[in-house]
Write a structure and sequence with these properties.
Elements: H1 2-8, H2 11-29, H3 33-57, H4 65-77, H5 84-100, E1 102-103, E2 106-107, H6 111-122, H7 142-161, H8 165-178, H9 186-195, H10 206-223, H11 234-257, H12 260-268, H13 274-277, H14 279-302, E3 335-339, E4 342-343, E5 347-350, E6 355-360, E7 366-370, E8 385-387, E9 392-396, E10 401-407, E11 410-419
Parallel strand pairs: 3-6, 5-11
Antiparallel strand pairs: 1-2, 3-4, 6-9, 7-8, 7-10, 10-11
Helix pairs in contact: 2-4, 2-7, 3-4, 3-5, 4-5, 4-6, 5-6, 6-11, 7-8, 7-9, 8-9, 8-10, 10-11, 10-14
Amino acid sequence: MQSISKVIHLPKIQLSFLLFLIAVTTFFRNPSTQILFAFVMSLGFTLLAELILLKVRGIKLFFPEAVVVTALIIFLLESPTAPWYEFLTIAFLAVASKQFLRVKKRHIFNPAALGLFFGNLFFGKTVAWWGVSWQQFSIFNFQSSIPVLILFLSFIISGIKLKRYLNIFTFLILYMILNHRFVFDSTVIFFGLVMLPEPMTTPNIPKQQIVFGLFIAFVSMIAGLKIFSFLPDLLIFSLLLANGVFFIYNNCYKGYKRKPAFARLRREKGGESNMKGNTLLWVVLVVVVVGGGYILLKGKNAGKMTQEKQVMPTIAVGQVSPMVKEEDKMTNKDVVNVTSAGFETKTVNAKVGTKVTWMNKSGAMSNVSSAKHPTHLVYPPLNLGNFADGASVSLVFKDKGTFKYHNHLDASQFGSVVVE
């Protein structure tokens, strides 16, 4: 009984249970055999990969609680519509990174993050975040806020028990500052409370934890710009980059400084000052201030671009609302119906000056936001926000190009507008 009590109090077991609760609430929000099958594939393929690769390494089998966490993260982030071989590839990449990309019994990269990033990069897709992007907090509806509270419970494990609160707070604060507003975003909350503070791949030293959080927030904003639109996910890319940078710093650079010849040379020069000891912290802070100012200025200028949003009454499926102008009736391609399955018209071909309208027929709140999830920096005028069932949002496209967007409340739903 005592051993069972100890197991229950393990952070990984508690996190597994919490992730399972998130998965359950996600399933009951939109129950389907496809989602259930995605859950089975995520868990089954990840456990299979763990068993095979442990056998390859000649390690005795043990209860893989860390792998269960990895599997549940893959389930919540990979689109349930993805074919089985994509789940298989992501699972093996994740477990292989944990088993082989390691030094001194510590893996270098967050396993789930690496599997999701390179798996989606290989298949030319983006990470969906579908299971952790729909949670919305409301002080007027306690029942709808329960999934949000479950998300925040993970802070007890990662922030308090694992003592990674400096990672979390510095990331969230700078991320919200660079986004120009304080906003609750369940995708960012999940990333910040569950994925970012993974204990094996994050620094233990408080100063490094601060830099780690700032580094990820800053890089994620840079990676959200249009020139990096080829990346399958900006948050996960930032996390993997931080994992690599801090591994190199702590295991290579600092290891080099400890060499006798190097240490003797420093003593001859009079020792190391406190300022030099904090070089990494100061460099990152300067980069964050300068780069953050640039992003803020860029976002402010982008916000001046013309954007239109209007609310329309509920209409029957197949009818055109009388509030839609005559030019919108010229072609059905200029009106995109949003259903529970996503955007009915995946690609809209239009001319400069065309007004495109998104009509919500999904039966729930929907959203239209520019790529990439969740910063939406590629084309800010497309950040039309949430709109209720029966309502619509519109935008007049005044620039040529291909403009990708998605439903921020379910990032597995996406589309594009090609303006010629």
